[in-house]
Amino acid sequence: MMNSKYWCALGLTMTIGCLSWERGGDDAATPRDAAASSDAGSAPDVTPMDAPVDGPPGADLGGADVTSDADDAAPVTTVDTGGAADVSCPAMQMLCNQACVDLGSDVRNCGTCGSPCVARAASDTSCVAGICTWRCTADHGDCDGDPANGCEVDISTSLANCGACGTACAAHAGSDVSCVAGSCSYVCSAGRADCDGNAANGCEVDLSTNAANCGRCGSACSYPNAAGVCSSGGCSIGACNASFGNCDGVDGNGCETDLRSSPTHCGTCSTACATRANGNIACVASTCTSACFGGFGDCDGNAANGCEADLRISATSCGACGLACPARANAIATCSAAICSFTCVAGFGNCNGSATDGCEV
Length: 361
Known about the structure:
2% of the residues lie in helices and 30% in strands. By secondary structure, it is mainly β. The strands form 13 sheets. Strands 3-6-7 form a 3-stranded antiparallel beta sheet, with no helix packed on it.
């Protein structure tokens, strides 16, 4: 239910003045026009319909004829527009620029006529109980707290405010970070990969140099007896392990040669043990050695001529180097099957069968 004081609260003083009554007794009332002029003819006729008022029924209220109906129907305000068609506004509405508006919810006339709610960036504007309010759209936020620029941040794409103000997307190693639909998203940078599946350390592998993941995760550079090297995403052989060599120059079989025992690559790929007469050559602890065949010996110590002595027949080294067969009288010392013997010279003989006195007769 409405009375003249309600109209004052709605700002009708700009249009029809503010009406109230001062009671002087049980059945008398004195009208008072709060407007500057007492000429009722100059103000538009306002008739609140079906609404009780503070003055007595039928009282003269300065030109405005106000009546009361016993019914409790919805109040309607009729405004004399001075020649134009009269406008009747429902209860809780006011006439603003020849239109009835609800000052409590009209964004163009919020609280008072002609007071629009100013639009703000990325905001939904509304008038609530005569006060302008703003709400950020679903994908925006007022992250700086400054109403002048509205909801200035697109929280669906902002790295510093992803999904909500203050929620920043953390940097991950080797990754390109973005905010997509309000969620942080990470993509490995070119040449990088997340080979351990641990999001916390990002794309931790450089595929161009990592020998265990060369070109792609799990592709290891592996060579026998050698280190693998990854360069520009491709594998190649690196340094050989100690005492091994890549003597054939083929990367695929790695460092195939054991330099500790190879007679053709003894100590280094370029060191071959020389062959020796009547002997076997060998590489022992990366050093060339040789061993004479059975029945032969290197009795002069000259490696160049190998095992030059035939210990089976040499009278000077019979059975072993330096073991010479003894001289016998009238005889020639011989070695046969590595056993010393002698042969009598012509015209002599060993008639007593004793080697001690040689060919005594």
